[in-house]
Amino acid sequence: MSGRGPKRELAEKIAGEITLSDDPGATLRKWRTDFDVSQTDLAAELEVSSSVISDYESGRRESPGIGVVGRLVEGLLAIDERRGGERIRQYGRVLSAGFDSDVVYDLREYATSLPLEQLHDDLEATEVAGGGTQQVSGHTVIDSIEAITRLSTEEFFRLYGQSTNRVLVFTNVTRGEGVGIALRMVNPTPNAVILHGLEEENLWDHAGELARIDGYSLAVTSAPLDDVLEHLVTLE
């Protein structure tokens, strides 16, 4: 691969994580499942038996060397490119916005505004505070802990992409207190927020009140994160 585009950046990131991991097999499995590639498909791409991939991931086979890691990464990227390159483009959007992919999972603008109510339905989200927003024009999916501990106020603004008329989906949420307080520190606030990973009864008591004061729609969902991300990456 030549150049320093998103594909090259992503290849180096994946290869580095696998090579430096205390459990290279588990890290390989994480990236393979993130790309939604089966062991059989990856094995076919590399012209090896699926048991080889299984053995690497389970630790039954000695940790792969740099050459093998390179082939595994190239295989994942080649499969993604044949499918349309969605994962590579997703990483490129996050990279171009100036974020690490462990802070922001996805950031995109829609070609046309989408009904927020429909998005809530698709993500199995329950709205606990209405903000008057009917449509959203994009989304950003964020690891709440990483964002709160690592992002400056200026970087927080970049989560909005091209517009605050979007939904910020915060993952890794316990009660929502940190997110609510963090959003109080920035102005303007997004039009909609979804807290992922908790039920309504476990939400911080003041979360809805803060959302109403700041004027954004607040919803919660406990749907599996993989399902949430799988749906969001299909939106255009």
From TrEMBL:
GO terms for molecular function: DNA binding. Residues 28-82 form the HTH cro/C1-type domain. Pfam families: HTH_31 (PF13560). This is XRE family transcriptional regulator. It comes from Natrinema versiforme JCM 10478.
